[in-house]
């Protein structure tokens, strides 16, 4: 795994890791319709 990716996955560096994962998952599940995932973006 590249160093940049490792840093983004480190909860000490990225304290919003779960919110980031949830927003990405929402985009994947909703065919990248940003309006349907706006609540996840607000949390992130």
Automatic annotation (TrEMBL):
The keyword Mitochondrion applies. It comes from the Eukaryota. It is found in: Mitochondrion intermembrane space. Keywords: Disulfide bond, Mitochondrion. One of its GO terms (biological process) is mitochondrial respiratory chain complex assembly. One of its GO terms (cellular component) is mitochondrial intermembrane space. The keyword Methyltransferase does not apply. Belongs to the CHCHD7 family. This is Coiled-coil-helix-coiled-coil-helix domain-containing protein 7. It comes from Pongo abelii.
